[in-house]
Design a protein that fits this description.
Elements (H helix, E strand, L loop, with lengths): L1 H22 L45 E6 L9 H8 L2 H4 L2 E6 L3 H9 L6 E3 L1 H9 L4 E6 L6 E6 L14 E4 L4 H13 L8 E4 L4 H6 L5 E5 L3 H7 L4 E5 L10 E5 H6 L1 H20 L1 H8 L11 H15 L12 H14 L19
Helix pairs in contact: 1-4, 2-10, 2-11, 5-13, 6-13, 10-11
Length: about 375
C-alpha cells in the first residue's frame, strides 16, 4: 500500500504540473535534466526549441504531409546506444516520411506516463507496468507497440557475494534507481519469485549509478538493465552473477504508448508513428554497425566511449528486441500482460484486476 500511495502522489503531482502548464499563456518551466533539441532527418537541430510541454497537435495525415507534426518523445533514460532504433528512424527520414518531427525527451518514465495520460504529450516509451498502474489511476494510456520482447531488468552482484538466485537476495543491501519504474517492479518480481518481501532486503536509492555503486561495494547487489550495466562491469574485470527477471517470469516490457484521445481522433498518426519506429528497429537489427555510427550524432559521449563495450550493449539489446518465430516485430504478447497484472496484484500496487484488453493494442504493427 505504501508503494501505491507513492505512485499515486507522483502521478497526481505530474498531472497538477501539466494542468498548470496548459493554462499558462507562455510556458515558463524547463525541460527535464537531459533536454534535447528537435531533429530533422539528417540529425541536424531545427531552428527553434519548442515549449517544454507542447500542447497536443491533432490532425489527420493523408498522403505525404508537407507540414510536420512535432512530437516530443520521452524515453525514460539518458541518451544511450540502446535508443539506436529511434536515432535510425530519425536519421533515415522514416519519421519525416510519416509527417513527424521528433524531439527526444529523457525524463523519467513515470512523468512521461502521467503527461501522455493527460494528453499533454501524445507518445512515450515506457515499461508495461506503467500502463497498468496509470490505467488503475484513471489515465487512459494504451500500449501500441512492444519494443522489448523480454523484460530487460536484472539484479547483478559480484561473484564473491554468492547471490545467484532470487532467494539469495534475502538480507542484502540492493541499489536501484529509486522506488519507481521498471527497475523497482523487476526487483519486486524477483523477490516475489523467491517468496521474499521488500522488508526482507535493504533498498538503496542510488539513481543511475549502479556501475559505480557496485564497483565501490556501496551495495551488495544492484538492479540493472541486462543490456547495459553488466557489460560495463565485466569490462572493468569484475566477475558477476546476474539474475534476470525474464528467467523467472514473462512480463510486458518497454514499448510505445499513446492515449485514448490520440488513438480515437487520429489513429493514422498512431499508425505512422508505430510504423516509422518499427522501421528503425528492423534496420538496427539488420545493420547494427550502421546504427552505431548514426547514434554518434545523437549521443554526445558515444564517440569517446569504448566501442567494444557500446557495441556489445547494442548487440545484447537487439536480442531483447527480436520476436519469436512466426510473430511480427512489435507484437505485444497477451500472456505477458496477464503476468504483469498478476505481479502488480500480488505486490498490492493494483487493488483489483483491470480489463487488460484495453491496455494494449496490436492493430498498428500490421
Amino acid at each position: 500500500m505504501r508503494q501505491l500511495h507513492i505512485l499515486t502522489i507522483l502521478l497526481l503531482l505530474s498531472l497538477l504540473i501539466t494542468a498548470c502548464t496548459v493554462k499558462q499563456a507562455q510556458h515558463t518551466s524547463t525541460a527535464g535534466p537531459y533536454p534535447a533539441p528537435a531533429y530533422t532527418s539528417n540529425g541536424s537541430q531545427s531552428g527553434t526549441t519548442p515549449a517544454p510541454y507542447p500542447a497536443p497537435i491533432v490532425g489527420t495525415l493523408q498522403g505525404s504531409p508537407s507540414t510536420l507534426i512535432h512530437i516530443r518523445l520521452p524515453v525514460g533514460y539518458v541518451p544511450n546506444i540502446q535508443f539506436a532504433p529511434l536515432y535510425m528512424a530519425v536519421d533515415k527520414g522514416y519519421y519525416q516520411d510519416a509527417g513527424i518531427e521528433i524531439e527526444f525527451d529523457y525524463r523519467l518514465e513515470t512523468d512521461a506516463t502521467a503527461l501522455v495520460g493527460a494528453n499533454n504529450l501524445q507518445f512515450g516509451v515506457v515499461s508495461g507496468e506503467q500502463v497498468l498502474l496509470a490505467r488503475a489511476q484513471g489515465l487512459p494510456i494504451v500500449y501500441v507497440m512492444a519494443w522489448y520482447q523480454n523484460y530487460p531488468v536484472a539484479v547483478a552482484a559480484k561473484t564473491s557475494q554468492g547471490i545467484r538466485t532470487p532467494q539469495d537476495l534475502a538480507g542484502k543491501k540492493i541499489g536501484l534507481p529509486g522506488l519507481y519504474g521498471a527497475s523497482y517492479i523487476g526487483l519486486r518480481s524477483l523477490l516475489s519469485a523467491a517468496g521474499l518481501k521488500e522488508s526482507d532486503v535493504t533498498l538503496d536509492s542510488i539513481g543511475f549509478n549502479q556501475v559505480e555503486a557496485l564497483t565501490a561495494d556501496q551495495d551488495q547487489a544492484v538492479v540493472v538493465y541486462t543490456t547495459n550495466e553488466p557489460i560495463q562491469l565485466r569490462a572493468k574485470g569484475i566477475s558477476l552473477d546476474v539474475i534476470r527477471v525474464s528467467d523467472y517470469v514473462q512480463l510486458a516490457s518497454n514499448g510505445l504508448i499513446t492515449n485514448e484521445t490520440t488513438l480515437n481522433k487520429d489513429p493514422e498518426l498512431v499508425r505512422r508513428m508505430v510504423q516509422a519506429t518499427l522501421h528503425g528497429i528492423a534496420d538496427t537489427i539488420a545493420n547494427p554497425d550502421q546504427a552505431y555510427e548514426i547514434s554518434k550524432k545523437y549521443v554526445e559521449t558515444l564517440a569517446q566511449a569504448d566501442p567494444t563495450i557500446q557495441k556489445a550493449i547494442l548487440a545484447t539489446s537487439i536480442e531483447f528486441w527480436r520476436v519469436n518465430p512466426g510473430q511480427q516485430l512489435g507484437y505485444s504478447d497477451p500472456k505477458a500482460w496477464e503476468n504483469m497484472q498478476k505481479v502488480l496484484l500480488d505486490m498490492g500496487l493494483l487493488k483489483q484486476p483491470l480489463d487488460i484488453s484495453k491496455a494494449y493494442n496490436n492493430e498498428f504493427i500490421k
